[in-house]
Amino acid sequence: MSYPVYSYRSLFPSLSSHIHLASCSQGALASPVSKAIEYYHNSLIAKGNNWHDAMGKVEAARGKFAELIGAETDEIAVLTSVSHAVSAVAASLPCQKYMNKIVFTDIDFPTVGHIWYAQDDFKDNIICICSNNGIIQPEQYEKQITGDTLLTCIPHVSYQNGFKQDIREIANIVHQKGSLLFVDAYQSAGHIPIDVKEMEIDILAAGTRKYMLGIPGTAFLYIRKELAEQLKPRMTGWLGQQKSSAFNIHHSQFAEGARRFETGTPSFISVYAGYEALNLLLSVGIDHIHSYLNDLAQLIWHYGREKGLHIIGPKDHEYRSSLTAIYAENAGEIERILRERNIIVSARKNAVRIAPHFYNTSEEIVHAIDELAKLVNGGKF
């Protein structure tokens, strides 16, 4: 297997001592990202107040994320987390007598269910589509989304087993029913190509700490511009206002587009990190990253099965992402042991998740699976 981006490995210092296969939880820290964090820290020491520079970086990061997903900058809000984004959207939706149903799935991250069940206006009209072995067929959306569905929430990629959904196909179903489509792209943005216009996504959220190679504290919310202008956020703040009303305590006028969903001062340090991370991803090229990770995913699948591992998730390559889940009764303990051996993976319930990025090699994959197989197949803990 060729490695088209081998020169980028030197940008990730931790790779000299660790095999980092946990991008579904936290991407490896790149030198440009680390330097951006240091720059922000040093600028506070040197200047005492770097507000204007920091706000400029927010705008630059907004532009980079817009480029990543094929959106306009005014369609992007800079928030603190995907939970923040989902909550903000939930609180802004109009409660209508005949359009009052919310649909999500059991493969969504738990925060999605927590937020919707907390909404008094919708809690009695919530439908959760249940997967079969972690997989949802398009026919299930066709059946359970109805003419009174206001919004449908789905993950692009399941955090549990890497199941990748066909967003364009689901968008067709959702929109034919009259529903809005909200996509959680936390497990896809940064390694799978996304074009919100071509995919016909109405709303999308993603954070920077996973495949986007940043740190916690920054997330982005995309809302189609025409839709954003129709929504009235109940979670807002001074940065979500038109400049003319930002400092007027008695007057409120929402900013244009998705910016109206912004609240208070963002986490500048993570914005600086996020900007450099996005810049790195775009310079490598998401198409190149996706192609390379498809090869690594195939290696994980075939070599893992050869070593007797039980791989959870779709068998069809078309519906698999590079996130691969392997069944293990003691997943948490195995994660701990592998970390002691300088192999970083991520456990969820009864699965060990292997999630490579463009900086990983086939040799690292083979070594990690060899060590994992020893533990899963009866090795001593």
From TrEMBL:
Please list the residue ranges annotated as the Aminotransferase class V domain. 38-352
Q: Which domain of life is it from?
A: Bacteria
Instruction: Say yes or no: keyword Lyase present.
Output: yes
Q: Which UniProt keywords apply?
A: Lyase, Pyridoxal phosphate
Give the PROSITE patterns listed for this entry.
AA_TRANSFER_CLASS_5
| Required co-factors | pyridoxal 5'-phosphate
**Record's keyword annotation contains Oxidoreductase:** no
Which is one GO molecular function term here? lyase activity
| Family of the protein in this entry | Belongs to the class-V pyridoxal-phosphate-dependent aminotransferase family.
**Which protein are we looking at?**
Selenocysteine lyase/cysteine desulfurase
